[in-house]
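Key result, reporting period 2: structure in, sequence out.
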């Protein structure tokens, strides 16, 4: 199976958050839901401290923990490209995938009551 990827180089990230806002806008999620986030990390000890940002979202895992716990089979890994998606119509909002994902990716939508 082919697995397509995001490529991210933190050297060029300026923490502008445009990727997060673009994701919210394109998916019409509202600004409370962050399917993509930009997180800041620090390393070193003052005064030799480095700060860098990571733009993170679903990792489209090889063996997704979210799929294993979804009793409704609402989460699917595309066998052609490896992309993991949620079929909103089948989701009963049990939130088991929220608890199972090690990366905190699934975002609760308390208004739609869907993933
Ligand atoms: S990855 Fe996101 S936060 Fe970083 S520069 Fe690009 S748009 Fe801005
Ligand atoms: S939601 Fe989490 S467990 Fe599921 S594919 Fe994305 S990163 Fe992996
Ligand atoms: S919240 Fe929806 S997608 Fe997540 S495990 Fe439950 S039914 Fe599946």
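The corresponding designed sequence is given below.
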């Amino acid at each position: 199976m082919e697995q397509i990827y995001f490529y991210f180089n933190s050297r060029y990230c300026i923490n502008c958050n445009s990727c997060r806002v673009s994701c919210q806008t394109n998916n019409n999620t509202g600004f409370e839901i962050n399917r993509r986030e930009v997180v800041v990390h620090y390393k070193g000890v003052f005064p030799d401290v480095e700060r860098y940002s990571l733009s993170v979202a679903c990792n489209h895992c090889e063996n997704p923990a979210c799929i294993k716990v979804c009793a409704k089979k609402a989460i699917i890994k595309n066998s052609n490209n490896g992309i993991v998606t949620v079929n909103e119509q089948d989701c009963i909002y049990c939130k088991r995938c929220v608890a199972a994902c090690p990366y905190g990716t699934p975002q609760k939508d308390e208004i739609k009551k869907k993933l």
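The CA atoms of residues 91 and 108 lie 12 Å apart. The longest strand covers residues 37-45. This case is discussed further under Risks and Mitigation.
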